[in-house]
Amino acid sequence: MDKSLIEKAASELVDEFRAKTLSPKEYLQECIKNIESSKLNAFCFTDFDKALSQAENVDLTKPFAGIPFGIKELDHVKNWPYSEASVVFKDRVSDFTSTYIKRLQTQGAILLGQTTASEFGGVNCTHTKLHGTTRNPWNVAKTPGGSSGGSAAAVSGGLVPIATGGDGGGSIRIPAGFTNLVGLKVTYGRIPKGPHADIGALTAVMGCLSKTIRDTARFLDVTSGFDIRDPLSLPKTGNYEANLGKVNVKGLKVAVSLDLFGAAVVSQATQNIIASAAENLIKAAELKQVDPPKIRIPSVGMEWAASNMASLLADLGDLYPGCEKDLTPEIMFGLNIAYHHYDLKWAANGYLKRIELNEAMASIFEEVDLVIAATNPDVAFQAEGPLPTVVDEIDLIKERGMIEGTANNGALTIPSNIYGNPAISLPAGFVDGLPVGMQIIAKHHEEPILLELGLLYENSYPWPRCAPNAPC
User: Fold this and answer.
1) In the chain, N or C terminus with fewer CB closer than 10 Å?
2) Is 374 a residue whose pLDDT tops 70?
3) Cβ neighbours of residue 155 closer than 8 Å, sequence gap 6 or more
4) CB atoms within 10 A of CB 126
């Protein structure tokens, strides 16, 4: 496939399909060829024959007409595997399709295959016993992150133009930051999670990994809106793409806190990149920079992890603890601790910590409209893991203990999952050839502001849309 074609966003490809300069089937065939020769291990299941059949008869009026999508393996597609990236469920098949995936299909998307994820979406590294190691196209020795690592690798590696993701603790933003993509975590409930909605810890949202702001806005237009099978889903507001370039952001108050008010230890090299990118964004958008509020984000890594173990145990049912040996080390460790030690007192502490976190976030947004921080504490680490516990020679286990030292990897993203507000990761630059993501965090329901800021930044400081060796 021509390099310029690989770099095209989904919305641009739809324009080409409509102009008859490229056919959906022709483009799909190139995607299939690239997936079959890829070394990234970004796909764990493909449905090429059905996709090719669908590409024969595309309704070009649809917003995603003929666009091949990678679908994260934690999403449901009827008659596709639903292993949740775990050996425990390696033979399980889904008997329904997720509501937001159906909405994509209705609006022209072609479901090409499943992209790899971390087991049960619980780790910031896509390396499982079931599927092996997924690799970062910017450096195949490094991870694309997790849990939406396969989606990020597939888009950044030039295999598909867009892919779905989910973000329960940073699982869209973290991979986006590691692979130079756009990753929007929406307000909780913006995109419905049904049918059979897993409410769980009230942290996880659906979304996508994309090359451009316009693609993300279009995805939100198609997938957002209330669904009766998700009682916490929000009414549709819509017109995200049509309103790009029309949202007034001039004069909004922004605080730059590279470590998100002490939530994480961030490498100096990452801080330098984000500080420069923030300065550029503030200038391009004519924002008003103010001093960061004197508030500290409480550490909630342990409470966040423990609260998510209840839904995991519900999923495993009577298979646990007998299946323990089949789990990846991180999931086995976390579930073991929660199973034997999580009690009413621990639950009460988590409840109080959540209130504390919510109050801290609310206090910040009483003073400012936006916060700019790093997406990740450092650049991508080794593809096979483990999660790094050292930043700039600081031993985080010694400084913060085992759980919080490991949780440093998600400490910049988890607060918005607990609070439920939107945040976006944008490509900001590189350290030693590895991408760095800038995170912009906004108040609840302010996705239009984040998309507008992203568009202004993209137009002023365009980023590479694929890794240099793509397709790879």
Assistant:
1) N
2) yes
3) 70, 161, 162, 163, 179, 181, 209, 210, 211
4) 33
Nearest by Cα to 256 from 223, 286, 281? 281
Three-class SS state of 376: coil
Q: Identify the three-state secondary structure at position 248.
A: coil
Residue 275 corresponds to which tokens in the numbers above?
A: 């500080």
**CB-count exposure of residue 431 (10 Å: 0-12, 13-18, 19+):** middle
Cβ neighbours of residue 157 under 8 Å, at least 6 residues apart? 38, 40, 42, 137, 466, 467, 470, 471, 472
How many Cβ atoms are within 10 Å of 159's Cβ, its own excluded?
33
Question: 124, 39 in Cβ contact below 8 A?
Answer: no
Is pLDDT above 70 for 321?
yes
SS3 string, 42-97, reads CEEEECHHHHHHHHCCCCCCCCCCCCEEEEECCCCCCCCECCCCCHHHCCCECCCC
CATH code of the domain occupying 3-292+373-378+405-460: 3.90.1300.10
All residues at 6 or more sequence positions from 176 whose CB lies less than 8 Å from its CB, including other chains = 145, 152, 182, 183, 209, 375, 425, 437
Reduced to 3 states (helix: H, G, I; strand: E, B; else coil), residue 442 is: strand
Measured CA to CA, the distance from residue 32 to residue 47 in angstroms comes to 10
Tokens 């994260």 map to which residue? 72
pLDDT digits (tens, 9 = 90+) for 41-69: 999 999 999 999 999 999 999 999 999 99
Residues in Cβ contact with 383 at an 8 Å cutoff, skipping those fewer than 6 apart: 125, 127, 133, 134, 135, 136, 140, 141, 142, 143
CA 257, 361, 427, 127 torsion-angle sign? positive
Given 3-state DSSP classes, what are the helix, strand and coil percentages for the chain, each rounded to the nearest 5?
40, 15, 45
Pair of tokens at residue 244 = 């790009």
- CA separation, residue 58 to residues 18, 68, 109 (Å): 10, 12, 9
Q: What is the reported pTM?
A: 0.97
Pairwise CA distance, residues 181 & 200, whole Å: 28
The closest alpha carbon to 234, from 225, 247, 242, 221, belongs to 225
CA distance 262 to 423: 18
Q: Return d(Cα 130, Cα 132) in angstroms, integer.
A: 6
Q: How far is CA 66 from the centre of its chain?
A: 23
> What span, in angstroms and rounded, lies between the C-alpha atoms of 189 and 466?
30
471 close to 36: Cβ distance less than 8 angstroms: no
Task: Find out whether 275 and 256 touch, Cβ atoms under 8 Å.
Answer: yes
**Strand, coil or helix: 14:** helix
Q: Is 467 left (phi over 0), alpha (psi -120 to 50) or beta?
A: beta
DSSP string over 193-235: --SS---TTS--EEEEEESSHHHHHHHHHHH-S-BTTBTTPPP
